[in-house]
Amino acid sequence: MIHSRITGTGSYLPGDPVGNAALIAAYGIESSDEWIVERTGIRTRHLAPPGTAASDLALVACQRALEAAGREPNDIDLIIVATSTPDVIFPSTATILQDKLGIANGGAAFDLQAVCSGFLYALSVADKFIRSGSHRRALVVGAEVFSRILDWRDRGTCVLFGDGAGAVVLEASDAPGVHATALHADGRHRHILSVAGHLHGGQPFGDPFLRMDGQAVFKFAVKVLAEVAEEVMAAAGKTADQVDWLVPHQANIRIMQATAKRLHLPQEKCIVTVDRHGNTSAASVPLALDEAVRTGKVGAGDTVLLEGVGGGFAWGAALVTL
Ligand code: UT7
Predict the structure, then answer these.
(1) What distance in angstroms lies between residue 160's CA and the mean position of ligand 1's atoms?
(2) In angstroms, rounded to a whole number, what is the distance separating the alpha carbons of residues 309 and 307?
(3) Which atom of ligand 1 is nearest to the CA of 252?
(4) Residue whose C-alpha is closest to residue 284's, from 11, 51, 9
(5) CA 36 / ligand 1 centre spacing (Å)
(6) Atom of ligand 1 nearest to the CA of 255
(7) Domains of the chain by range and CATH?
């Protein structure tokens, strides 16, 4: 039986960290460091300089993941980029990334749009490709430049997000790495977090910025993250005490703490990067995973519960052993 396994991780954050006070001053936001830290846990985030696109961030994250896996770009036969802030409408960010990596082997490459749960969706899809036998080595990427879709006059959203990319190399393996994945969506809730504007005839129509009903999103997130975690553990035949680490989507420290509590997981088992990265949407889970691996917290043989939730509404989880 073919399984899929994560063999390398990588990530990239652009520029220097921007603290709450500096952000507030730069954009004239009616807010305070105290409010942001108390309500979200966020202290700093990274913002991509003008001209930097999601594929630029993804490129470095992928190079680092490939190096960690001991692989060359041309070993890769599948690239999935989870992003809601693609370089252009088309071609896909994945094909742009494929070119930047110097891959010319004609492998598959495509984008996947599931907003903050995008990496979980991409990992699940890549796992299914590999287990089917059609592909052997994938780059699964989350890459975002959310700063491009923020309305700096909307203090309820602009202080929350950051830019970055994370990637894993996922390879065919005899032993299970990815034990189970679970994906869900409920489009009835699509209005509580959206970018409703669109292009028509070359002109932007409607509101091009991210809008969110924060409290509605908060309540929904806490509920479904615990449910999907239970589902994926049951599917894998594992219990919470067999989970070494929880790597949740990094949106708000209070959501992460509430999820860990509902799952009866000690807070120390929860990987936290939201304080330094903010919410990087599809990039947040692979960014947090890579940081945990590189700092030596998470190591080979550890069982890790990954999960994400966001616009759509869409959510998902994966249980993996590294
Ligand atoms: O990645 C997708 C998932 N996204 C999320 O998970 C985000 C989920 N939601 C949240 O994290 C929280 O709901 C927020 C951090 C967005 C907001 O926190 P909250 O505790 O739910 O605050 P609130 O929306 O109830 O607002 C409380 C007050 C309001 O003022 P009034 O009406 O009480 O006078 C807001 O206008 O805080 C005000 N406020 C702010 N004040 C200072 C909202 N944003 C700010 C701000 N600085 N940046």
Answers:
(1) 9
(2) 7
(3) 11
(4) 11
(5) 9
(6) 6
(7) 3-174 (3.40.47.10), 179-321 (3.40.47.10)
